[in-house]
Amino acid sequence: MTLKLGSSGDAVKQLEQRLADLGLYTGTIDGSYGGGVQAAVRKFQATNGLEVDGSVGPNTWKALFPNEPRPVNPLLKAPIGQRCLALTGTFETSAPPPGCFSGLTGDFDKQGISFGALQWNFGQGSLQPLLKKFFANHPNVAADIFHENLATLQATLQLPIPQQLAWTRTIQNARFQIAEPWKGMFLALGRTPEFQAIQAAAVDSTLATARQMCKRFEVNSNRALALMFDIATQNGSISPTTEALIRAGYAKIPAGKPADVEVARLQVIANRRAEASNPVFVEDVRKRKLCIANGQGVVHGLPYDLAEQFGIDLTPISA
């Protein structure tokens, strides 16, 4: 697993501590690979004769931690639906996994609290079922996270939505930032594999729609499934008019290796669906969709490598 700008988690904390011990990093040990960490890594690489790219790949990791194995990305072993959710969630929250599963925002949009990879929220009533399921299925984990605050949150979930929204506004400041200890507790909740699995289960119907779209447009790779899942999540669907344009684009793709044809079809889908978006957002949508079609790219300033970060490549769609 390569650590780079935008990465997060325990491996990044380990990296930050090592760089701090070497006198190269003076920032917070928070598990977030930001510009300060990147600058420290660049300095270490330059000093040790390594390629200066600001990312911690196998050579830089070995130089930093000679006797420790390179960290393994646990997401690579997750079901394909959870990997698709993590990718789309990263686009939505600008926080790579596991951070995307803990995406947390306050009442800037009048939804009280929005949380998770797809920003389920109190106002629309989409977050409450996930929380209730977690509390019912994993009471011990819930107690370990929320402690004496668990009863307050559970009682709040039984109230009408307007009263729930009123409560959420008591635990955030005027800039809609969730206050401690609630912020830390929600972030901890999102990091648990139990709640991540609940988030993944919540998008089963969207994943099923994505599978149907793959069949409809004759693409059959995990990358295709990720693209269709992202379209179903962000854009809803592909209209008959856009489908006709996609079919016309298919007709212009030259014969070639199956993988090359697959990528060319995904590029056509990405471009035509982006062009059907609100004109204000066309290029933003295009970057996001082409990143998936090509397997790599930069979206909202974050670099993506789908195979390495999410285990999403051109292999046939997983069960």
Molecular structure report:
The chain is mostly helical and 319 residues long. It has 3 domains: 10-64, Muramoyl-pentapeptide Carboxypeptidase, domain 1 (Orthogonal Bundle); 103-201, no CATH class; 204-310, no CATH class. Helix content is 54%, strand content 4%. It has helices spanning 10-21, 35-47, 58-64, 80-93, 128-137, 139-146, 150-156, 161-168, 182-191, 193-201, 204-216, 222-234, 240-251, 258-275, 282-294, 306-310, and strands at 104-105, 114-115, 120-121, 296-299, 302-305. The strands form 2 sheets. It has a 3-stranded antiparallel sheet with strand order 1-2-3. It has a two-stranded antiparallel sheet with strand order 4-5. Strand 4 (296-299) and strand 5 (302-305) form a beta hairpin. The longest helix is centred in the last third of the chain and has 18 residues, at 258-275. The chain is globular and about 65 Å long.
Task: Give structural attributes.
5 strands; Muramoyl-pentapeptide Carboxypeptidase, domain 1; two-stranded antiparallel sheet; 54% helix; three-stranded antiparallel beta sheet; 319 residues; mainly alpha; 4% strand; 16 helices
